[in-house]
């Protein structure tokens, strides 16, 4: 009786794995979309960048400036080439 139950259990286990088809390209769309959104997968830090955990002195001075209300304003950067574009998205002129 015990042998029959184990044989039936093994047969059910083997047949349940046949229900899910194996696709070698499963997940490729997600991987492709992810890779298209990654700008630089292996960025090189600037020479002046703090590495490996940061600097306690810089963090302490930043915390002190924050408490005194003397925070530094971030530098603005321009992300376009500076040429005039012909787009009207977001102009608000309806």
UniProtKB/TrEMBL annotation:
Comp. bias intervals (Gly residues): 80-94
Signal sequence residues: 1-20
Organism, scientific name: Sphingomonas panacisoli
Name recorded for this polypeptide: Lipoprotein
Keyword field: Signal
Region (Disordered): 38-94
């Amino acid at each position: 009786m015990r042998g029959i139950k184990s044989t039936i259990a093994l047969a059910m286990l083997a047949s349940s794995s046949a229900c899910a088809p194996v696709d070698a390209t499963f997940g490729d769309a997600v991987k492709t979309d992810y890779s298209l959104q990654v700008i630089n997968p292996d960025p090189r830090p600037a020479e002046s960048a703090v590495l490996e955990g940061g600097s306690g002195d810089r963090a302490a001075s930043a915390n002190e400036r924050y408490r005194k209300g003397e925070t530094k304003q971030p530098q603005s950067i321009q992300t376009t080439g500076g040429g005039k574009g012909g787009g009207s998205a977001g102009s608000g002129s309806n």
